[in-house]
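Action item from last week, closing it out:
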Amino acid sequence: MSEETITETPPPAPGRPALDVSGAEFRDAVGFPDPPDQIRLRRSVAAAFTARGVERVRERSRRMLAELVDEMLQDGPPADLTETVLRPFALAVVCELMGVPAADRQGMHTWTRLIVSSSHDPEAGERAKKELGAYFSDLIGLREGSTGEDVTSLLGAAVGRGEITREEAVGLAVLLQIGGEAVTSTGGRMFYDLLTRPELAERLRAEPEIRPRAIDELLHRDAVSLSRVAPEPIDFGPHYCPGGMLARLESELLVDALLDGVPGLRLAVPATEVPFRKGTLVRDPEALPVTW
């Protein structure tokens, strides 16, 4: 796939506020310490984010996505792709990887949206941070000594072995949960690109062998932005996203399910009428009205 195929300048996005890392839920988490602490924290959950760890949730993720697409088709057009597929899929997959029980998943989403949105009452965001941190503290505590493969089980086991503290485990769990839900934004931006360029979507339908390369390029677009200020010149080399492989898996599944399963998928409104989210840390369509 040629570089020019998908490198057109995207529409302007809202301003990006800085990520507040002052709370206890974030302070010692994986995105912020430098080696050797950063390496120690990554090691505690590395198994969940290897190729094998991510593949562990592939089939379950594929089934959950198929159910969401079927429900959207049964309800009929038009539909908001973000609300009907992208958001619930991202939430379900990250919770599956994290080991969050199904009954608690909507609460996870509510906390995450309060934390990442700057349009809410700041006190509500602070309460959400504390509540999410308390939730993961309890869940990780229950899983100390666990042999499970999900993230909270791995964190509980690492705490039980004395390799990381409970506070570090909680901070890492909070960031991974929030980052995992950011795939909603990645998927929204990716499908905005595809649906505003129907010739590209048709090419990917006709030539599935080029999808991996196209997805790589689409994921490198400015889909998610967290603005942070470094106190001094540093090299961010070790701070790559631990969930990158998971985001790619979800993107592959979404492209296959929606391009193949909904061949007539297209925007239900002019591209200029697609609303982009304001007052959040991520850059994505607030809604993605589609028809087929």
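Closing note: Residues 1-25, 223-227 have pLDDT under 50 and may be disordered.
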